[in-house]
Write a structure and sequence with these properties.
single chain, 459 residues, alpha/beta, Glutamyl-tRNA Synthetase, domain 2, Helicase, Ruva Protein, domain 3, three-stranded antiparallel beta sheet, two-stranded parallel sheet, 45% helix, binds glutamic acid
Length: 459
């Protein structure tokens, strides 16, 4: 790399923060971190009608939630600011003057146009139903890092400043990339069609254009249909992951795989590995596909890999917000319960319903499980055998419980597991859950015995 890497994420605060934006931000951030470069956040807020402070905040919050810190930009400062386009008018004005004095602009219908170089001719445009002026400009070569060389020739002059005085996206985007010293423009493929204009502008301003890397499209989850993923598709908004308590590290891992892969089919990676292995050259040209199941799988794997202290740190607010856990809950007891849940719960959003009965005697019962269990065998008989055996058990540990069930089986000539489904339901109200004996151990003898008696009384 010739000069230190400087990349930017340049969102417009005109809508919810979606996965496509997050991917663009992440790939820029990863590239900067891989090369020890600078990651800049620039807000493209020139569209006054459609900007909103809520959407702007959502950009900051989403980037922070995903752990993408920016080195220059709002809040971070930097010597190439301001970093909001709405505050950069004098800079645009100066560059407009430069283009004017170089004879590269003209005024028409109140707007300022950029003048392409090349032979001019007129042609009838069937779409506009009018004669239009066209230019035979030399083709521009876009040496795209991902797509390879792409040649395009602009054939119409384009607007730099609208009749209402507002500079256009093409103009401010190029002036900012130029003045902010951007070395690589990494952005969505939808911008490829703008890039020849941008290169023309860089050259007219006497600058060498940055390298361009256009990221592939993101297609819908096959289950959601065909075509490009839209902001309305399930899983499209970063806010949704946050509200559903996905781990930000997992979401980031998943997003990194939308068009990039570490070349060894590894799907679950920590951020250090991703940074180390991330190369623009390894990004695929073909579209990436959103895959909800893969997201769920990666989230589960990240959850399972957390040390129990960190797991509890993430889980506690989810449990207290849902009313399952009192604020004052003891940390040791919480971690005991969570170490049973961690291998089983694929998403923290499912944790409250999975673990409610550990923290309260007031939990729902699954009627279908009840019906199934009571239909077969002799539930009263089984409970009458089990309850006294558990009442006298000391110490109350999983191995001792294991022995107790074995002894009971010997005495009654039943299988060791004969009491398990009934007992599990009696103490939890459901048919599945954590490993059975450790679950009884953590619930504790008084709770188990009381709940089994209560259950017996309902039969
Ligand atoms: N504001 C543009 C967008 O959100 C940025 C384009 C670019 O990265 O150059 O699409």
């Amino acid at each position: 790399m010739d000069s230190p890497v400087r990349v930017r994420f340049a969102p417009s605060p005109t809508g919810f923060f979606h996965i496509g934006s997050a991917r663009t931000a992440l790939f820029n951030w990863l590239f900067a971190r891989h090369h020890g470069g600078t990651f800049i956040l620039r807000i493209e807020d020139t569209d006054k009608e459609r900007n909103s402070p809520e959407f702007l905040n959502l950009i900051y919050e989403s980037l922070r939630w995903l752990g993408m810190d920016w080195d220059e930009g709002p809040f971070a400062g930097g010597d190439r600011g301001p970093y909001l386009q709405s505050e950069r008018s004098p800079i645009y004005q100066a560059h407009l003057e430069q283009l004017k004095s170089a004879g590269r602009t003209y005024e028409k219908d109140g707007a300022t146009f950029f003048r392409l170089e090349g032979e001019r001719y007129t042609e009838f445009d069937t779409y506009l139903n009018a004669e239009v002026e066209k230019v035979r400009a030399a083709p521009v070569l876009i040496d795209d890092v991902i797509r390879g060389p792409v040649e395009r020739a602009e054939e119409r002059d384009f607007v730099l400043v609208r009749a209402n005085g507002e500079p256009t996206f093409h103009f401010v985007n190029v002036v900012d990339d130029l003045t902010m010293g951007i070395t690589h423009v990494i952005r969505g493929e939808d911008h490829l069609s703008n890039t020849s204009k941008h290169i023309e502008l860089f050259r007219a301003l006497g600058a060498t254009p940055p390298r361009f890397a256009h990221l592939p499209l993101i297609l819908k989850d096959p289950a959601a249909g065909k075509g490009k993923m839209s902001k309305r598709d399930k899983g499209a908004l970063i806010e949704e992951y946050r509200q559903r308590h996905f781990l930000p590290a997992a979401v980031r891992n998943f997003i990194a795989l939308l068009g990039w892969s570490p070349k060894n089919d590894q799907e679950v990676l920590d951020i250090g590995e991703i940074i180390e292995r991330f190369r623009l050259e390894d990004i695929q040209k073909s579209p990436a596909r959103f895959d909800e199941k893969k997201m769920a799988h990666i989230n589960f794997e990240h959850l399972k890999a957390l040390p129990i202290e960190s797991y509890a740190w993430c889980a506690r607010p989810v449990l207290t917000e849902s009313g399952v856990l009192p604020e004052s809950a003891d940390e040791t007891q919480l971690q005991q319960v969570l170490s049973l849940c961690q291998p089983k719960v694929d998403n923290l959003e499912n944790l409250p319903s999975f673990s409610r009965y550990f923290f309260s005697d007031d939990y729902p019962e699954d009627p279908s499980v009840r019906e199934r269990l009571l239909k077969k065998g002799e539930p009263k008989q089984l409970l009458d055998e089990l309850i006294p055996a558990l009442e006298e058990l000391e110490p109350w540990t999983a191995p001792a419980l294991d022995d107790a069930f074995a002894a009971l089986a010997g005495k009654t000539n039943r299988k060791v597991h004969a009491w398990w489904p009934l007992c599990r339901f009696g103490v939890s109200g459901v048919g599945g859950g954590p490993d059975f004996l450790p679950m009884l151990e953590v619930l504790g003898k008084p709770t188990v015995v009381t709940r089994l008696r209560r259950f017996r009384d309902t039969l």
